[in-house]
């Protein structure tokens, strides 16, 4: 039974146990009912059968009673015989007898009934009226009583056998029910205790975070399914927990990365805004970017929209600079315009160069090429961070340019005031003196000596030169940049001189527009205008070339060339105050002014000076990249 129950489910075990209990109880109850039905008639039959012996003795006593007359004895015997017949044919005896004719009990009853009716009853009735009848009938009555005793004993044995059978059935049923109940309770108790205890222990382990526990799922019952469900739940929780841990770790990493990015942006913003924008500050920003992203940043290049090549304004570790990052023949390809551009690195197979644009408010200031090592996974957050730093650098350059413009406007306003004062005072005085000299000459014509007329001519020439230079000075003081910078001012000046006769003038400006201070831009523009004015008045040619560039030493070189009559044939050097003014301005810039004849013919005016602006002020940085960008 244990083996049978052990292979069943819990409900199956309960069903089998309940079935066994029901069958045992039913068998017990049915056997009890059947015994009650059968034993009820047998008890009465035993009593009636037992009374046949007594009635046989009553017949014998009636026959042996000699005190009675023959008639009375005959009546007494007849009455006893009738009573025996009534008892012999009693229904309880008939109902007790089995239907099988070969049954020993029925055969005994049949023999007793036959002996009575065929032998003893006729004998008793026959001898009842004769004297000495008892001696004839008594031996036969004793034999008959023995037969009746045998029938009664057999009937009693039958009842006892039925009682024993009932006891056996009841005992077996009770034992089976007890065993079934004990086995069911034992197995359920063992399984429930073990399974529930394990599940409870495993649940506590899972609650503590140990998702590696697994409940045994042997068998095929509901507890095995429950254990499997628990195992699936633990596995799902383990995956979910691992997924959540991975997500938390990813989010933490992203937050840490965002925090580092914000720290980098804050540090770069401090570097760019805590003081004047210098190459050292830009180099520090590049070092911060390289430390955070792991991508080498080596140069920041400013770009003039009117030229192809860029100008390096900061170099990070010039001694380890990649020799091909700023290849002169590939300078235009490196410029990223307003979008980040990625291109192959020609010197390293598998490597790339990422050109980060310097854009602020839609204006492109330059680029910051970043080296991407071979096999490096350029993640989007790194590109976004580089672009953000590029926007910060562009904003710093734009701020520096605005500051220059503000200083330039302030300087121009001051010079406008000076020009107005000169016009209202010195210009009017010179005009008055010119008029008086003209009057004096008319008064002296033909009357004054030759020496006096020479002095008057010199006065007139000096006044004319002074007035012309004053006009040039007023024009210079009234010069405006209109917020467009030196490059546009040069273009406007070129258009002005074209309209005045220099139709072949060309301007080649390779500066980025942020390399000169406001005062330097004014002095450079005025020297260029003065040189062009000399070409207009003395060179006798419509062609002129203006070139602005930076040499390998980092010095600014501005040259104004023409193909005219040359410096020696352009007239006497006396009273050439424009040349003196240009030299004075060159000295103000801390540079030198050289005026020489061109080998091809004509004159070359060359201004060379070291700009005082913070950007590009490092001669080493400029020298490291001046020929490569």
Explain what the structure shows:
The chain is α+β, with helices and mostly antiparallel strands. Among the domains are: 180 residues, Four Helix Bundle (Hemerythrin (Met), subunit A); 132 residues, GAF domain (Beta-Lactamase, 2-Layer Sandwich). The protein is 64% helix and 11% strand. It is built from 15 helices and ten strands. Strands 2-1-5-4-3 form a five-stranded antiparallel sheet. It has a five-stranded mixed sheet with strand order 6-7-8-10-9. A hairpin with a 6-residue loop joins strand 1 and strand 2.
* Helix count from the secondary structure assignment: 15
pLDDT < 50 stretches: 320-324, 569-575, 616-629
How do the strands of the widest beta sheet line up side by side? 2-1-5-4-3
Give the CATH topology of the domain at 2-181: Four Helix Bundle (Hemerythrin (Met), subunit A)
Q: What is the overall silhouette?
A: rod-shaped
What profile does the largest beta sheet have? 5 strands, antiparallel
Helical content band: 55-70%
Order of helices and strands: HHHHHHHHEEHEEEHHHEHEEHEEH
Number of strands: 10
- Secondary-structure arrangement, i.e. CATH architecture of the domain at 2-181: Up-down Bundle
What is the rounded distance between the termini? Answer: 97 Å
CATH class designation of the domain at 2-181: Mainly Alpha
- The pLDDT mean sits at 75
Secondary structure class reads alpha+beta
- Please tell me how large the radius of gyration is: 70 Å
Strand content: 5-15%
CATH superfamily of the domain at 2-181: Histidine kinase NarX, sensor domain
